[in-house]
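Hi there,

I know you've been waiting on this one. I reran it after we fixed the sequence typo, so this is the corrected version. Both the input and the resulting structure follow.
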Amino acid sequence: MESQVMIAEAMSAEFERVTQTIELGPLYPQVSVEEVRSYLESRYTFREAVDLDEVVADVERMLQSWQVQVTHSRYFGLFNPSVTLASVIADTLAAMYNPQLANWRTSPAANEMERHTLNWLAGKFGLPSDAVANFTSGGSEANLSALVVALTNLFPGYGERGLRGIEAQPTIYLTAESHNGYNKLSHIAGLGRGALRIVATDTRLRMDISDLERQVVEDRKSGCAPFMVVGTAGTTGTGVIDPLCEIGQVCRDLGLWFHADAAWGGAAILSPTLRKYLAGIEDADSITFDAHKWLSVSMGSGMFFCRHRESVAQAFRTEITYMLGKQGGPVSDPLATSIQWSRRFIGLKLFMSLAERGESGYAAMIEQQTELGHLLRNLLIASGWRILNDTPLPLVCFTREGLDVPMFLDELRNRQIAWMSPTTVAGAPAVRACVTSFKTTSEDIHWVVDEINKIASHSAAEQMAHA
């Protein structure tokens, strides 16, 4: 036990050292692809052994210098947050013990820790006690799982005959604000990208229920087989939450599968002040949620939840003779209820982070970042910027008259002020800023807004000089 405490203390000290180094170093790397490749080719031929300490030090130097520091307090980009110490330790433990979670009997402790964590979260989402859930590599695998299980559930011939067992063209309904990955997943599943139907959005960029109903009815009249609607709880571009209650009702009325893609925004379910915005998610047939987004654990830790246990079992069933135990028995083996076969201990990082922080600690973290998002929004409005999105989540899309978005973002990065990303809102180019780090403070927000106002003022002055 003493040695384990020493290891934890050593890792904590190293974690603090790396965190401080990242905060004090460059947020954005100034490096070319040729520079990185020539360095690797000159130092790592793999013909001779290199001392491990030397390799570790060199790899860390490369990561410090040649990476966008997504764990930095002023990284306001995509959903790549600062990570908890507990998740870093968990990843180390998972690598050292190297459990194989395909089979329950091989790794009872690891499988049960994951089951315990997933069941707790399923309850938070309002799913029934017999719902099935698995950890995934990320949101794409979880969304693909939902697609395969939905096809299995609604088309009896799909499991044995594939798409040849479906007489009509299956169609999926989502908005242009949904994750673009569904194009790839529809291709992978054999439906073709043409199976996607883009539903109109309202003035708040939420799914238009009337247009959804209209398209489903028209597709059925034309001989297609509508089967799935994707409602997003926190879109990537603008943080919009689709009207989940209304989507659920339409799906019940028309016999469609309701998939809630809550990869980022699903964390709001842990917040007493934010969970109301996810009302209706409890009616979903399946849910995607990523812990490596707003729950701040290290990559990757996605999750797939489904209320139809038998459909999951049918979609991923398998018969093998070379592993302990029996698939489909009293305890389901993950290999028989998920896409993955060999799988590392993905869920430990979330299990340990939840254990360390507790539900109230996570709620406080999420609500603090939400308040900082509101602060950013209000400071920008007060400074003359125009806000283009409407969301209760900490994601702000903004612009102003005459703003050259690519040039503005280059200035932010080159001056090491903050990392933000470009987006398009209702056809208009905009700057996208999302508070993703629990290290971000109100002082960071005030300083960043002051600096971007200076950039905007300088650009305006230059435009007037050239007019």
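Quick highlight: The CA atoms of residues 399 and 437 lie 23 Å apart.

Best,
R. S.
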